[in-house]
Structure formats: structure tokens, C-alpha cells
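User: Show me a protein chain along with its predicted structure.
Assistant: Here is one chain, sequence first, then C-alpha cells.
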Amino acid sequence: MIYFAATSANQTDLVETEARQAGSEDVKVTSGGVYFKGDLRVGYRFCLWTRCATRVLVLFHQAEISSIDEFYDHSVELPWENFLTPDTTFAVTETVSGCNWLMNTHFVSIRLKDAIVDRMRDKFDDQRPSVDVDDPDIAFALHIDGDSVSYYIDFSGRSLAKRGYRKQQTEACLSEFLASSVVCRSQWFKDGQQCTFLDPFCGSGTLCIEAAMTASHSAPGLVDPYRFAFYKLPFHDEKVWNEVFSEADDSTVVPKCKIIGWDIDPEAIRISKANAKAAGVDGLIDFQCRDFLDTKPSDVTDSKGCIVTDPPYGIRMGDSDVQIQKLYTGIGKVITDCFRGWNASILCGDSSLLGYVDMKPDRTNSLYNGGMECQLAHYYIYTDDERNALIERAKAKREERLSAPLSDGAQMAANRLKKNLEALKPLMDKEGVSCYRLYDADMPEYSAAIDIYEGKWISLQEYAPPSTIDPDDAQRRLDELVLATERVTGIDMDCIFVKQRSIQRGNRQYSKLNASDSRFFIVREGGHRFMVNFTDYLDTGIFLDHRPVRAKIEGLAKGKRFLNLFCYTATATVYAAAGGALSTVSVDASGTYLDWAQKNMQINGFESLNHFFYLDDCMRYLDGTRDRFDLIFCDPPTFSNSKSRDSFDVQYDHSRLIKSCMAHLADDGLLIFSTNYTRFQLDEYIAEIFDVKDISQETIGDDFSRNRKIHYCFEIRKHKLAPVPVKIRLKKNVSIKLKQDKED
């Protein structure tokens, strides 16, 4: 038989291992799960022992089909009577991908039901089985990929991921199969379950229960062994099943570790104990009601252990962002202060919160809780001796690197950087600027931009070399520039983040460069705080060249209705709010950046109801709103395209964009339009119909003086028309309507 074990994304490797442990020697991994071959014994064993699969199906037919009519004709010929009788009930589910001949995915299920019923009527003198969506005797599943159609029988039942022990649960609850995946990814599992397991935010106790079943070698399917769908299948073999069941029942062992669950909520502890009892592992877990943030070093008696936990992250619990951020900051502090020598695995549905833990993960996994992507970050907490040894090794390595002579090229780059730093730093210090550009391709052979943040971090963005440059030469020059940067700034190599700038198309404009880090830092500018990320995205979260523009917005915003189009992370909105804006509206097509924008506003204390955020294409937003604004900031990308909206080219589309902005501008309002397109030319028609002032040079700071074309910036206002006296003599019973051309 060919089985298919469905699972969540990024967990197929775990399910593949489970299939091999069940006895299959022919296993194939796909994006949505794992195919494996075996007899009934293999299938039964897999259902009993799998911890990470969500459903097991048996493949019984495949075909190439090119139309819905052909699908029905083919389906009605299949021997459904081998599985059904007129007295049984059935249901059909479907998954469809890339099928051109199917417009409505659910329609294919309807046609399959029709085919099954018509076939059964023909075989049983017009008698037919009934459809029962909720609790069918037998369930069939369709998978259509292009023209390839696969027919399956449900072998395990849809509730495979639900063990059956969770009789009660807290408001925020982790699914059993995901909890088991978290346990399997942890260092505790990799080290053989020899040390203490602690979940300090245990909730319903799911992580602890899954850990206890793993450590005691208890098959998850034994909790409720009568829930499987295969009991009602005609090929079920009771003798083989009893043998597999007995084999699993006899395999339980006494674990060699302590398993502990803490929670601040007494009700959660009560629920955890009840669930552990239902799972048969209540004697293996020590549940305690206590606040993890109150933990002291003296409370931790084990020198070695592993924290595996799923703390609250706001979306589920309804806590404010400030509360959640304080929680994660506290988690990081307690772990580093009290659990030295331990490992920790933290699952979080908002990866930005992991930055508040203030530890660098050794590795991460991306898992999915329903449709929500979660990051599972793994840490090792060094003991004092280990930390001191690491520090000494790092110091020695750094001293060795700094004492080594630079190559001629690196020395040349260092000389230029030193000259720039000596000229810029006094100016930046005088202005109170801690984030600024140090270098911008000053030398053609070292083509990169180097930005200093808070004197702690460097963002070095290499401009993609042309294809004519030898890759080895390009890499050598980049390495020389990095060495020169460390030597001149004194910022350690580990805090120099290197990325390559190239043209981004479509969704790549918003996608992560590095999905495994997700570390955010706080920088200051103009008395405000902003979140930056040096690893995950092409840009850090703040455009340094717009610093003077933002300051100008703050000075103009008092009492104004402010609109920020293409708001990115809403740094300009923060300035406007700080300047006393009456209200702010921030619009961007990226949900990632809009979430970031709201966090920037929150950490600066702007959480009132007069600050609005819209996830939308900016042109579509302007076309769909009637609101008017006193101050608008519009900083569109040079080029943008996406499946969800029309492409945008700033040179060709800026005229239409500006006119749309002006339609929503108050008569005495101001539009500040900016672009980083180096060859930008403002449409002459815009300069004719509006009052335009080029303020590019006055909005470029000293740190960008080497590249005066870093951006173009314009103040755009409506023309003020002088009133013209008009005398009109009307005859009796005559009326006229005066029209004014919009462009006059």
C-alpha cells in the first residue's frame, strides 16, 4: 500500500523519520507531507506512533485528466463498491493546485460525490450511500496538481493530530502535533532526554505532556486508540492491529529526567494536571503555579536542563505590545541570570519579539501554527567560565586580526574611511546625530555604502558588481573593505552586517533576506526611537538620507492632518506625531512594514485613536478615499510590481501620483514629494499647474554631501488665485450657472 502522511510546513523531515521507524523502507518527501510504502502493519504502527503528522491517507488511484467532464467520466468507472455499501456514509475533501480546467475547487468534490452515488446506484438497484460531512464512515480525499488527479482513502481519520487527552484548555493553546514538533526540535530531544525539561509558560500543559510521552516512549495513539478511521475500512485486519497495539503497549519505559511545568495562572495548572492525567503521564510531570519572572538563581538547582516554551505573544492573549515586550525582555534576563549551562527553545508567533530576549540564537526553525508562521529559536546559555573563555578567545582573535598588516587595497580603503570619519563625526556629534552615512562608493573599486548606527553597528551594503568583474576579485575587495571598516571604526566584525544591493522585483521587495535571525535593535534619531533590523531585509528600517526631511515634517505638523504614503516603517509619521499632528494616516502595501510602522509609533508613545494604518496600494487608497489632508509626505519606490497591484515606475507614473495627492490636499496644504531615482526629472506639466519648489539640496545632510543625488525632494502647493471681481446683470426670471475649469 502507498500511504501519504500529511503534515505542516517544515516538518516533513520529522515525519520521514517516523515513517522509517514504522518499518517503511521506501519513503519519499514532498512539500505537503511524506509518501511511504508498506503493509497494514506499517500503516497501523505509523498511526499509533506518529507525533507530527496530521492525517494518513491511502493512495488507491491516479490519473491524468484535462476537463471536469472527463473527471466525472473517469471517476464513475472506479470501483467505489469495494469500499462502500448503500448503508455506509461518506465524505469528500479536496486540495487543488495549478489546475487550469477547474475554476471552483469545491465543485470537483461535488462531481466526485455525483460519480460515487451514480456508480453505487448502478451497482445496488438504485440504492445509494449518504453523505455525512461531520462524521462519515469512510472519507475520500482528492488531490489535483495541474492535470494529475490522485484519489485517496482516509486511513487515520481527520483528528490524528488530536491525541484525545486535552479535555480542557486555556485560551491560548498549542496544537498537540506542533507541540511535539517543538519538543523534537529542542536540544533536550537531541541530547536523548537525559536532563531536566522545563516549560515556564505551560498553559494547558501540552508541551510537558508531549515531552513526557516522548521520554517514556509512549505511543501517542494509545491515548485514544479507537478514533482511527481504518476500523471501518473493508481491508482492516483486526489480528494485525492487535499485534501492533500490544507491541506499542509494552514499549513504555520510566523516563530518566524531570519534567516540570510552571504557569502564573492557577487555573492553567489545574487544567494541565487534568490533561496529563487523561494522557496517562500525570505521575511524570511536576506542575507548579509560579511566576517565571520572579525566578532567582537559587531557585535553579539543576546544573543542566532545557527550557522549551511557547510564551504569550499578544495576538492570542490580547495583551498590549508594551506588556509583551516587557515580558520578553524579562524572559531573556531571567534565562541569562538563572539558567547558565542550560539550553532554551522559545516558540514565538511574532519573530520581532525574540529581539527583546536579547540573546543570539544558535539556530532557528520556522513552524506553522495554523496559518501563522512561528519562529522557534534555540539558545545555549553559557556558564560564567564558558563565557569568560569565549570572551578571551574573541579578544585574542580580534587582536590578532587588528594587528595584522592590511593589504594595499585595504589600507587605501582605511585611509579614506579615516578621513571621512574625522570630518563627519564632529559634525554629527554637534547635531546630535548617532546614525549616519560614513562612506558611499567614494572609490569606484570599493563600491558600497557604509552606515554607522549608534557607534555600535555597521550596515555595509555592497552595490552589486557588474558581470564583467571577476567574482573572486569582487569578494577580495569586499573583504578588504570590511577589514578596513573594523580597523577605522573600532566596531567589532560581529557587528558589521554585510548585504548586497541589487534591483528587487515583485514580492522580493518585501521578502526576508535571512529568515533565521529576526533580531531588532533600537536606535535614536531626533529624540525618537526606531526599530532597525540589519539582517533580514535589504533596508534596515530607516532611510538615513531622509533625516532632514523628517525634521522638516516635525516642524510643520502642529495641528495638521498628516498623510504618509508608501510609509515603509512610518519614521516620518513618528516625527509628525511628535510635532503635534492632529491626526496621522500611514499607508503601505506591505503588511510586514506596516506592522513595523505600528511598533515604531508604539515605542514612541503614540497609541491614540487618531493614528491610522492602512494596508493598501497607495494609488488605490487615494482613489478610494475622500479625506483631505494639510500635510502629505509621498516617497514612492523607484519601481514596484506585484501580482496584487499594477506596476509602478516613478518616472512614468509620478505625474498621476502627484495629481492624485493634490486632489486630497487642503487648499493651503503642502505635499512633500521625494524620490531616490537618480535620473528623475519632474514632469513640466506638474510645475505648470502647481506651485513647485525644489528643496533637494536643503534636505541632504552633511553625511550625504558626497552624493548630492541621493534623493530629489519637492514642496508642492496649489496655486493661490487672486479673486477677480465680476459684475453680472440678470434679467428677471433668468438664472445662470458659473463653471470654473479645474486647471484654471
